[in-house]
Amino acid sequence: MKYYIGIDLGGTNIAAGLVGEDGTLFTRLSVPTKSGRSAGEIVQDMAELAKKAAKEGNIAWEEIEAVGLGVPGTANKETGMVEYANNLGFYDEPVVSMMEKALPGKKIRFDNDANAAAWGEYIAGSGKGVSSMLAVTLGTGVGGGIILDGKLFEGINYAAGEFGHFTIDRNGIPCNCGRKGCFEAYASATALISQTKEAMLENTQSILWELCGGEIERVEGKTLFDGVRRQDGTALKVFDRYIEYLAAGLLDLINIFQPELICIGGGISKAGDLLLEPLKRVIDQGDYARTSKRRTRIVPAVLDNDAGLIGAALLD
Ligand SMILES: [Zn+2]
């Protein structure tokens, strides 16, 4: 077995893990990022955590083949620079060469966190064995990654797969990106929560109020799904519309890419079949290839927060 270290650099935490060549995660450690610090300090912490992750898994440092790094923001794989990472305050930081200095002799691999997570799901999670897949993450925003013919498709800025920002309603809700009606503005967890709150304000008798203890600020994605389980009329209405939004975006992706598989990750995907079954029904009717024998499968992501680590460790 060959061993690798994967590092997931986030705005809140740095996680590092010892990963086998088959994608098995043996150890997982994390420390607070304390973002706002210099890139040098953060690199030092990442290097130390990488060594600890190997040690904790009883693998000598010399046996580690490579260290892979997933970073939030724009990761230029050609130059090894993090060109911009909003939540770390990084501008043009040569993170790869800094890591090479901190860990002499180790190969350093590098990508943005969304691509690393998609790659992890592909190599070791829900995408094992397929040749093409899309990873779609429904979280604060909507993100993802594209794997075509066994390779990450990354575009000129290594940032392809921004699934949050294609238009599903040209005159729709303003999006953070400056346009209107982006998929993210309808299908992210953030969007679902605001759709839920809006409906609650119009329906003061809804069970959703009870489910959030009467405090609307406490509404989360789960609140809506709990309401659906209780067959609350308001919850069901919000839910059906959310499924329509989600299906609209996913159908576009299916028609464009015809992937073997789409895996859905992020907090919302925890709703499991409650979400996926009705979603699949709507997609089934709209898929341009609906008369074909081979159809895109929609599945939940399986690696959760470890996808980024595992994917980073096994980057090409
Ligand atoms: Zn947008």
Automatic annotation (TrEMBL):
<keyword id="KW-0418">Kinase</keyword>
<dbReference type="Pfam" id="PF00480">
    <property type="entry name" value="ROK"/>
</dbReference>
<dbReference type="GO" id="GO:0016301">
    <property type="term" value="F:kinase activity"/>
</dbReference>
<dbReference type="InterPro" id="IPR043129">
    <property type="entry name" value="ATPase_NBD"/>
</dbReference>
<dbReference type="InterPro" id="IPR000600">
    <property type="entry name" value="ROK"/>
</dbReference>
<keyword id="KW-0808">Transferase</keyword>
<dbReference type="InterPro" id="IPR049874">
    <property type="entry name" value="ROK_cs"/>
</dbReference>
<protein>
    <submittedName>
        <fullName>Glucokinase</fullName>
    </submittedName>
</protein>
<comment type="similarity">
    <text>Belongs to the ROK (NagC/XylR) family.</text>
</comment>
